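Field guide to reading this record: the first block holds the primary sequence, the second block holds the structure written as discrete tokens, and the final block holds curator observations. Each block starts with its own label. This record concerns Fumarate reductase, catalogued under organism Shewanella inventionis.

BLOCK 1 — SEQUENCE
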Amino acid sequence: MAATPLPAKAVLLTDKPRGFSHPVWAARADRLQSVTGVILGLFLIVHLHFESSILLGKDAFYQVAQFLEGGIFSETGHGFPILTQIFSAFMLIVVLVHAVFALRRFPTQIGQWRALRQQMQFLPHEDTKIWFWQMISGFLLFFLVPVHLFAMMTNPEIGPHLSAERVVHQNAWMLYVLLLPAVTVHAIFGLYRVSVKWGLTTQRFAMLKLAKVILAYLMVLGVASLVAYIIIGRALSLPVVPFVPGL
Ligand code: HEM
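BLOCK 2 — STRUCTURE
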């Protein structure tokens, strides 16, 4: 006996989009991913500049760290490391929200990876390549960023000597050598993609060129800062004494 085809209504009911495949939820998820991505990207640009104040000397970095820890509001002038802990926990939540909404785009099956590679060979468009590297760097950051944020929550001491001690004597340089390129590439190309996607610019090529210039600049700034921490850290005698301005 020939199989009776399902009535059209039943097919429609079983195919009903659910969760993030529903267009309204997919649009909301898209927006949340972009908003959290922009927050993180802009934060990184500011963060690398604050942190590079070490290039202006120990005193400059000390003042920046004290200011960010609310030094002017504390009696000792040394600020409140708990602010660093709270802010780090908040950033961890933003990172997790961003990652969860990004994960739904990750190719999970071998067939999807094959299709992506074929697409890249067939149409080697720069934006397809950027999307591919966004995915690889995003995957690495899923592991690297929480390590950095947990370190800041459990050991929130920041200063020219204390940071240099963390970088050299607690081997944080190993993390930063991977984190710096991965997060800079991911953040800057992410901001470029958001500006094109949401129609903030029509000058795609000019924007891409600008993104590459900013990327190179941030990498130079980050590497120079890391080298400065390493030079300071190697010159410290143990046990490390916190930096005191004017001494
Ligand atoms: C919100 C809490 C955060 C605090 C308090 C913080 C603090 C610091 C400090 C003080 C350093 C200098 C070295 C050290 O003391 O270990 C550093 C380095 C670094 N941070 Fe953060 N960070 C935070 C979040 C983040 C996030 C969310 C990212 C990435 C998205 C990030 C990326 C980096 C990178 C790449 C370096 C190394 C820079 C270089 O090599 O020059 N940080 N961070």
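BLOCK 3 — OBSERVATIONS
The pocket of protoporphyrin IX containing FE is lined by residues 40, 44, 47, 51, 84, 87-88, 91, 145, 148-149, 152, 158, 163, 166-167, 172, 176, 179-180, 183, 222, 225-226, 229 (CB under 6 Å).
Residues 204-235 form the longest helix (32 residues).
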